[in-house]
Write a structure and sequence with these properties.
single chain; about 550 residues; 5-stranded antiparallel sheet
Length: about 550
């Protein structure tokens, strides 16, 4: 037993030395000068494979481990990454990327002598083609415009040489570069896939500022500094941090206490802590926390809304009062968005005074696209127009939501009742709601849409008639031929001013036809320890740690 105990101590000390650079001796402890950024992810991480980077909890660590051809800066501009420059053909169908020659994969046993090799254009051909495999990839629909016809020799991607990579499209697509900033399109080595197979999800090999060390699922993820990373800030090679650790504490009160105790450097999201305790009603940090933490708030490309199923070819819509446009517009006027954001979100976010396109995208302009505001007189007029004067004869309508949004929907319910529109609330599990909405089983439902990439096309695609659910994401089954014509036009348009005008026209149509009830445009919110610097924010809510610095407590 003594022998076993001694061996256990040795193993624990060795692991501590690897992760924390400490020693297990009787000598006087030295001050640990390594800088480790720690954050908590309540939802957990399910995969470190870029092909499965379909939610923020996976995207954040994948962003530290992998790079793509291009990247998005904090102003949502596409800038070089592994591709140092690119060219687009006059017809908009061929994209040619010229690669850097100083980018190497992380050292890993999948390589000869376990030494990471230089990336080539063939690695991008391999990585992009892998995304067609539905067993590993969540990005198949994003490849629908890739031309793999006889014209391109049935190859949508090609390596002209080691440093030149080509992509071929069926039709011009002005948002294509923005799509390529998604983590799906990261480069990875074929050697790692051949060695690890399906287990690549927990043995990632990339080119990013940090490299994989260990992942105890549900407990801890550890990433270490990539000493050979190719990006610099001035004369300084990035990253500055020595390591990143991610914890997976599900209870927000426990996680908040760990933040207060110094274990975490950041908590992110309104659900990560009790906003009523931490923030005042104006959305500012309570004084008791302001000396230790910085509150980061940033426009988020996310629109929260109520969706309304309006396709009269669906049985549950045929007799639903929501098929009447005047009633849908009455609902939009029947509650106060500003009060809802102030009292139920502590002013996190912006009342949706425009259309579906959120604050933060170039075409957003609430003086051009005029949305809905609280107006009881308008409600009265529209109810009469809909055939329900003072609400008489209007059946009760069921609104489906989840527990997280119950207070908000109860507020809407109360205000609608004051305006003679009665609704009941059905609280579903998130998975049940998601499936039912996709299957067109609910007339009225609470949803949100987060931008996958920084282009309005990603938001307007929800209302394109060829994207009807369950195949696509048009959950309301909205169909407007004029809208479709503009959608097909704008996705080919490269001129930003013209795009803005077209998107604004489309957003006005949505306001007038009212297949949705826009609620608010969300904000990113983070509590960050004041010993952290260089942690920027961006409307995509992408976590970038390569330029972060940390001052250790003395």
């Amino acid at each position: 037993m003594k022998f076993f105990t001694k061996r256990l101590i040795i193993v624990v000390c060795t692991l501590s030395a690897l992760l924390l650079n400490t020693t297990c001796t009787n000598k006087k402890n030295k001050v640990d000068t390594r800088t480790i950024f720690n954050y908590n992810e309540m939802a957990g991480v399910s995969s470190l494979d870029p092909a499965a980077a379909n939610n923020v909890e996976n995207i954040w660590p994948v962003n530290q481990l992998f790079n793509g051809l291009v990247q998005m800066n904090d102003s949502l501009r596409v800038i070089p990454c592994i591709a140092k420059k690119w060219y687009i053909s006059d017809d908009g169908l061929t994209y040619t990327f010229i690669l850097r020659n100083d980018v190497y994969f992380h050292d890993n046993k999948c390589f000869e002598k376990e030494k990471g090799r230089k990336i080539t254009a063939k690695d991008f051909v391999y990585s992009f083609n892998r995304l067609y495999d539905t067993r590993v990839s969540s990005a198949v629909t994003l490849l629908s415009n890739i031309d793999r016809s006889e014209k391109t020799n049935y190859k949508g991607f090609s390596a002209q040489n080691d440093s030149t990579f080509n992509v071929y499209l069926k039709e011009p697509f002005s948002a294509f570069l923005s799509v390529l900033t998604m983590k799906y399109f990261s480069v990875l080595p074929y050697e790692a896939i051949e060695l690890y197979g399906q287990d690549f999800r927990r043995n990632p090999v990339g080119t990013g500022p940090f490299k994989f060390k260990l992942w105890e699922e549900g407990t801890k993820l550890v990433l270490l500094k990539n000493e050979n990373y190719f990006e610099f800030e001035g004369p300084n090679r990035l990253p500055y941090l020595d390591a990143v650790t991610v914890s997976f504490v599900k209870d927000r009160e426990t996680a908040f206490m760990e933040l207060l105790n110094g274990k975490y450097d950041m908590l992110s999201g309104a659900d990560a802590f009790n906003i009523n305790e931490v923030l005042d009603k104006n959305g500012s940090l309570q004084e008791v926390y302001s000396k230790k933490f910085t509150l980061q708030k940033q426009t988020f490309l996310k629109t929260d809304y109520l969706g309304i199923l309006i396709d009269e070819n669906i049985e549950i819509v045929k007799n639903s009062p929501l098929r009447i446009k005047a009633l849908r517009k009455a609902i939009n006027y029947a509650f106060d968005r500003e009060k809802m954001v102030k009292y139920f979100r502590n002013n996190i976010g912006y009342p949706a005074k425009a259309g579906f396109i959120p604050n933060g995208l170039p075409s957003y302009n609430d003086s051009v696209v005029k949305g809905y505001s609280y107006n009881p007189e308008k409600v009265r007029q529209l109810l009469m127009e809909a055939g329900f004067p003072e609400g008489k004869g209007l059946p009760e309508i069921t609104l489906h939501t989840t527990e997280n949004y119950l207070e908000q929907t109860e507020f809407i319910q109360s205000q609608l009742a004051e305006n003679n529109i009665k609704i009941s609330i059905s609280v579903d599990k998130a998975s049940v709601l998601k499936q039912a909405v996709a299957s067109c089983e609910y007339n009225l439902f609470k949803k949100s849409w987060v931008g996958d990439y920084a282009d309005e096309e990603n938001f307007m695609s929800l209302f394109y008639s060829k994207n009807f659910a369950p195949i696509g994401s048009n959950y309301t089954h909205y169909k407007n031929p004029e809208f479709d014509i503009l959608f097909e036009k704008v996705i080919k348009e490269q001129n930003r001013a013209v795009k803005n005008s077209l998107y604004q026209q489309m957003d006005k149509m949505l306001i007038d036809d009212a297949p949705i009830v826009p609620l608010y445009y969300d904000q990113i919110i983070r509590l960050v320890n004041q010993n952290i610097s260089g942690l920027s924010t961006n409307p995509m809510n992408l976590l970038n740690l390569k330029a972060v610095k940390k001052v250790n407590a003395k």
